[in-house]
Amino acid sequence: MSTTLIWRVMQMNRTRLNALAKSKITANYFYYSLDYGLRIVVQLGYFAIISRSLGPAGYGIFASISAVSLLAAVFSGLGSEQVLVRRAAADPVAFRRAFGHALICIALSIVPVSAICFLVLQFMNTGDIAWWALGLFIVGETLFTRLTHLANACFMAHEIARRQVAINILASSIRLAAAVLAWTFSSTLTLESWAIWYFLSLGVSAAIAMAFVFRELAGPAWAFFRSDLREGLQYALEFSSVVALRDIDKPLVVEILGAEAGGVYTAAFRVVDSACIPVRALLLATYTRYFSHASVDASSAIAFGFRVLPYGATVAGIVGLCLFFFAWTVPLIIGSSYSGAVPPIQWFAIYPMIILLSGMGTDLLRSVGRLGPRLRITLFSLTTYLPLCWAGAILGGLVGVTIARNVSQVVLAGATWLAILRHPKTSK
């Protein structure tokens, strides 16, 4: 290769790097990485306090209740926050009415969703927790967490990543402060006392998040779009499948292997999920762009996804290697009673790559309007997910359920990308 050719290649790469460094996606990726990076520090403290204070058994019950409550919370608002992102990303003038529609949907759905969640939990292992404490956990997620997510969606629609960072870090910090206060003022932290602190922390976070939206964007213009309900419900069903695939194995482990094993398994997953910060930051930084590209042409959105994929795969691979080789440090941080979390963490080392492929595939299918295929894929995965995890737990304990979960989600990611590659407008 001649010296001139080498120089030209170097100049082309330098030009590409300069363009990448100056792009809004890079800026948003920095903000989201900062967001997740700061949150993991805060959440590590929160996780250490709560897991130690409640113990594996109490932590397992808390994780089980949280998983079911979060799943129910997806239907609080009927998926209207995702409709808001689509509407406002394409037309910023539509934001206020989409915001008002989302608030009305939350108000209409909060009571029935919470009641159904409470009823479902009556048939599950929730220990001896009082009914009112159970109610606080549920309403905290179905109302306050949902409002915080709506505030994030408002700023995401405007691609204002720095405000999302502020909301998320404040929410995590408030939850950490609640954990510290609960630990300080409770000689023995029970699920009942923690329910009060947890409910208050979520309420304060939601109030601050909504205040940011009203002050920096706009208040709602009250409107109710019946025509958007079907699309919103599709989003809700899809996200419920995603949430179920992420957390519904926790109650399953509690039911089959006991509350203590459930606490250890949940601790392992929380460590792995927190380690996926760089991957989730990339997904968030590119999310709105898929819709922007798709508003012009579906093939443009798909081509954009393929351009981002190599960068994400590199990040996910590095995270996975760190999880495998440094899993042994976890019991040193959260206590020796969680030493059983090390093997599951190592088996979860492929989880960052699964998150990347599933997340990018989902965003692509949403952006090009293929919600039907995506919903069918996730619902099929969900119907096979629980039986696989049940068999894994019965046959192989914590390691068995970890392997079963990995297998199920690899199938989900593969089916998602197959649907993308079969799209008639896939860029060659």
Task: Please describe the topology of this protein.
Blueprint: H1 3-22, H2 24-73, H3 80-90, H4 95-121, H5 131-157, H6 161-185, H7 191-216, H8 229-247, H9 249-257, H10 259-275, H11 277-294, H12 298-326, H13 330-334, H14 342-347, H15 351-367, H16 371-421
Helix pairs in contact: 2-4, 2-5, 2-6, 2-8, 2-9, 2-10, 2-11, 3-4, 3-5, 3-8, 4-5, 5-6, 5-7, 6-7, 8-16, 9-10, 9-16, 11-12, 11-15, 12-15, 15-16
Helix content: over 70%
Largest sheet entry = none
**Would you tell me the overall average pLDDT?**
83
Whole-number tally of structural domains: 2
Which structural class do you get from the secondary structure elements? mainly alpha
What is the N-to-C succession of helices and strands? HHHHHHHHHHHHHHHH
The end-to-end span amounts to 29 Å
Gyration radius from CA atoms, angstroms: 22 Å
Strand content: under 5%
Report the total helices.
Answer: 16
Shape: globular
State the total count of DSSP E strands: 0
Low-confidence stretches: none
